[in-house]
Description:
Layout: H1 7-16, H2 20-33, H3 38-50, H4 54-67, H5 72-84, H6 88-99, H7 106-118, H8 122-135, H9 140-152, H10 156-169, H11 174-186, H12 190-197, H13 202-214, H14 219-236
Helix pairs in contact: 1-2, 2-3, 3-4, 3-5, 4-5, 5-6, 6-7, 7-8, 7-9, 8-9, 9-10, 10-11, 11-12, 13-14
Amino acid sequence: MVNLLDPHLIITRMFEARKFDDMLNYCIKLLEKNPNDLMALQNSALSLLHLEKFPEAIFYCDKVLKENNFDMYAITIKIHALENLKEYEKVLDCCDSILSRNKDDVWTLNTMGLALNQLNRFNEAIEFYDKTLKIDEKNMTALMNKAVALSFLGDYQNSIKYYDCAQIIDPSMKELAIAKSREFEKLGLEDEVFLAAQGVLIKDMEKIKSDAKENKCSVFHQFCQLEFEEKETKITK
């Protein structure tokens, strides 16, 4: 039989209902009875994170970490709070703590990269995205943010390649096409700017350009013709 007065269930219900003020007040009452109640400390931090009271959230995380310096729940909440406070050097310290125990933690590797991006340390950031991609070659966070880092370094060609890889994995993300188009714009490649914005992959661009040259028309008109033919084929089927 489920105990409806179980603090864990009560906190879970409040969290799912997004009643973060109530959740915090309930946790504080638990801490009045037992200042070392780990669950209450963790969920005080979580509720404060959602209430956007980031320094207070970190305060409760540090209380947990004082007892257990490798409490992943507390470290994760602290990282999110520090990111919101733009304290990226401290984010790196938290990530180092996790990676010292688990060097292949993908979330932490990406978080390290994102913090380094924010600190304009793009070459270092790329090292962490590469570590992620060795573990998971289809990791969207690493692919997209490596593309961002490469762009800031002026390596637009390789930035385009990584946006393209991400687009192959998830073509529904329209922002990838726009980002790739902007990289082509930096290279002054007008036809590619247009094709990328339409969601065309690199592997298909040369064929469209070649057909346009053969048909003595613009890339724009060749693309429109291709779109028309594809629609006609679908109607016929």
